[in-house]
Amino acid sequence: MDEEKKKIIRSILYPSLFVGILWLVKVVEELSGVNLVVYGLYPRTWPGLLGIITCPLLHSSYSHLFSNSIPLLVLGAMTFYFYRPVAFSVFFWVYFMSGIWLWAAGREANHVGASGLVYGFAAFLFFSGIIRKERTLMVLSMLIVFLYGSMVWGLFPIYPRISWEAHLLGSLAGVITAFYFRKEGPQAKKFEGEDEEDDGEEIKEEEA
């Protein structure tokens, strides 16, 4: 039981630290009177390259920050709880892949906010459960659909002020990491009734 408590605490700790950094940046911005949003990601410009790192850390308002904070905590905690061995790698790759792609393909506008990470975590959790075919993780995938299924509308250019490209590219990064890390972390249990021929077919598919 103590180990389970430690696992839960660790799973909550890391996303909480990151969200805490986001709030600290916003508070410092408010107290200093310096508009840090200008350091966001502006696609295809040399100064905009810095935005690959700074974009998820900056938010246009407290409401914008709050709307990203809750899903980051929930989805981040799920990722660290169920996929602890690859959680940091998933965070790293989604963070930088989505940022680089946004710099290369985004609209000519100043992009800020951590919503690309939110979509990346959601896509990773959903597709990891489907790919691995493990019962608990598939239930988790369905839970993601139930909680955040409406996020799908954020993938389309419906609202001009919303960076739908960040959402779309973050989701793509989440799908890629789900596939790339499919053999690491929790796996579906193999039962004694499985024959060798089936195993051979699985290996062929994975190599292709």
Annotate the secondary structure layout.
Elements: H1 2-32, H2 51-54, H3 62-82, H4 84-105, H5 115-132, H6 135-148, H7 164-180, H8 196-207
Helix pairs in contact: 1-3, 3-4, 3-5, 4-5, 4-7, 5-6, 5-7
Could you characterize the architecture of this molecule?
The structure is a single chain. This protein is an all-alpha fold and 208 residues long. It has a single domain (2-187), classed as Rhomboid-like (Rhomboid-like fold), CATH 1.20.1540. The protein is 67% helix and 0% strand. It contains eight helices and no strands. It has helices at residues 2-32, 51-54, 62-82, 84-105, 115-132, 135-148, 164-180, 196-207. The radius of gyration is 19 Å and the shape is globular. It starts with a helix and ends with a helix. Residues 195-208 have low confidence and may be disordered.
Short description:
The chain has 208 residues and is an all-alpha fold.
Integer average pLDDT: 88
**Biggest sheet layout:** none
Q: Oligomeric status of the shown chains?
A: single chain
The CATH topology is: Rhomboid-like fold
Report the CATH superfamily: Rhomboid-like
Radius of gyration of CA atoms, rounded to a whole number: 19 Å
The poorly predicted ranges are 195-208
Shape: globular
Q: Hey, roughly how much beta strand do the residues contain?
A: under 5%
Overall number of structural domains: 1
Class from helix and strand fractions: mainly alpha
Keywords, separated by commas or semicolons:
disordered C terminus, 208 residues, Rhomboid-like fold
